[in-house]
Amino acid sequence: MPDESVPDLPLRCVFVYGTLRSGGSNDITRLQPPPRCVGTAQVAGVLYHLGAYPGMVLGGNQWVQGEVYAIEPALEAVLDAIEGLGEDASDEYIRREVSVQVQGRAVLCLLYEINPRYVVSVPVIERGDWFAVMNR
User: Fold this and answer.
1) How far is CA 36 from CA 6, 7, 51, 77, 101, in A?
2) Catalytic residue among 76, 83, 92, 97
3) Residues 41-76: pLDDT tens digits?
């Protein structure tokens, strides 16, 4: 549920679609400094099943379900570490910025996109919802 007491968003928000979603194995709400929920959202992309976690490639005509959180810079560094983000082009994830519609409002969000080389011959999650797959 979005935090209604947040009148203006800070400079940084993140869209999470897999294990970082609330209730996931890396639940962002358990991390420090604590994020503030902005709301649920969808982003155009393809979601892939990589076993214990998903990976999203932006674009296409499918939608990926997720949540948007307002974060502090210190939490962004924690997220980068969880996603194994480095400076190498062969890293598993690439940090992107995308505009996401949340409750009718455009919000610029950080998003961790899977490097396409990691999803060759990997199954697609058809409905774009990691939790729907994990809760079957």
Assistant:
1) 8, 12, 28, 16, 17
2) 83
3) 999 999 999 999 999 999 989 999 999 999 999 999
Residue 80 per-residue DSSP state: H
For residue 32, give the nearest of 66, 84, 77 by alpha carbon: 77
Mean pLDDT, residues 12-21: 97
CA distance 56 to 115: 9
CB of 136 closer than 8 Å to CB of 129: no
Pair of tokens at residue 31: 């991390």
Q: What's the one-letter identity of residue 109?
A: C
Asked if the model's pLDDT at residue 77 lies above 50, the reply is yes
Annotated active-site residue 83? The verdict is: yes
Token couple for 53: 């976690």
